[in-house]
Amino acid sequence: xxxxxxxxxxxxxxxxxxxxxxxxxxxxxxxxxxxxxxxxxxxxxxxxxxxxxxxxxxxxxxxxxxxxxxxxxxxxxxxxxxxxxxxxxxxxxxxxxxxxxxxxxxxxxxxxxxxxxxxxxxxxxxxxxxxxxxxxxxxxxxxxxxxxxxxxxxxxxxxxxxxxxxxxxxxxxxxxxxxxxxxxxxxxxxxxxxxxxxxxxxxxxxxxxxxxxxxxxxxxxxxxxxxxxxxxxxxxxxxxxxxxxxxxxxxxxxxxxxxxxxxxxxxxxxxxxxxxxxxxxxxxxxxxxxxxxxxxxxxxxxxxxxxxxxxxxxxxxxxxxxxxxxxxxxxxxxxxxxxxxxxxxxxxxxxxxxxxxxxxxxxxxxxxxxxxxxxxxxxxxxxxxxxxxxxxxxxxxxxxxxxxxxxxxxxxxxxxxxxxxxxxxxxxxxxxxxxxxxxxxxxxxxxxxxxxxxxxxxxxxxxxxxxxxxxxxxxxxxxxxxxxxxxxxxxxxxxxxxxxxxx
Length: 503
Description:
With 503 residues, the protein is α+β, with helices and mostly antiparallel strands. It contains 18 helices and 5 strands. It has helices at 3-33, 37-42, 44-54, 61-78, 83-93, 95-101, 109-129, 138-164, 184-203, 212-215, 217-245, 255-339, 346-370, 374-377, 380-390, 412-433, 461-466, 470-479; strands spanning 399-406, 437-444, 447-454, 483-489, 492-500. It has a 5-stranded mixed beta sheet, covered by helices on one side. It is elongated.
């Protein structure tokens, strides 16, 4: 035998022993809750076997089924009944259901849980179809497997997900001094929820019995909001323990009481899982939207950075080539003027000079629109100061105060954006505000900020949409992943924005 075969045999024997012990233990618990041996088999043991099958490799299915058949044989040995053979037949008939469910066992959680409910219904229907040959009530035969499926299958799924679907780190000397983190608060919340429901279900006076079922929803809602569907299912497990604790007098158990217990377990479990899935779905959608928003903001910042780079390159090309050609044209025009002793070509030379100057002025204006060339010549602080000086605030008797602080170097894109927004804001104040005092505060760092305030006449929200360039400011800031806030009233206007670091 090769090594792989030996490993398979050892694993299969371990699984066989584990499943056999778990199966018998669950049968004992089920027998305590249900009135007959047959119902005890189709309750927790059958559900456990189905949960293990659909979360285990098919190569080990034989060991799981063999453990169940051995358990049935043991029960037949000590509790003779014709039902054991029929239950063995039911075990064999469950193979197709398991075969279908395994295709979805390791996919997203909600299809698996939905199919788990379908499996419970299918197995319940199969059991009920053979109910005439089994010594149990058909209603109990229908409810017992369905309730057990709803409780046990999500447990198996969660255990498989947390134990085998996540990578395990290797134990090494590096983790010898790593502290173990205990989530005490989560443990206290779970314990408090369990104790609360246990007291409600067991200690309420008979006059308040109708109030008890509503208390089951409280931990389900809280856990669903905090932990998603896994938390909601955990809350349903606590609720199930509380309900079972209230159903402790096994000797006085009647069919009606048992049906009531199974219905309570099934309904509150379905409610918890359904609510948890709805909350989890909403969380997943929110997370997806946030991820897409971050991606869009990243692409927008990349687009703006690329745009500024292209603007800078075009401005450089225009400045170098167009400027040189205009200078050459003017030089040749002057040469012609000096060589033209009769002044026969003077009008034409003058036209050439005027046209070259027009081209120069147009190019200069275009360069200013493409990129503030002043940022290439002086520092950012001097550029903003020169901008305020060129606006002519002093000539209008407007007091302007500038405050610029540097906490961390910023990219050229951020500097150009802040300069343009500051230019647009000061231009609006110069033309429309009728202000007497203006304050500009700029902070450059990992998160750059700009605040421009004045004590002018302000504007209405309609003006924000129709003019002043404020809409463009807000759109550009938001596209870069920043925040922009514009407040205005009859006492003045305040423009506040922040920009993230853009490499």
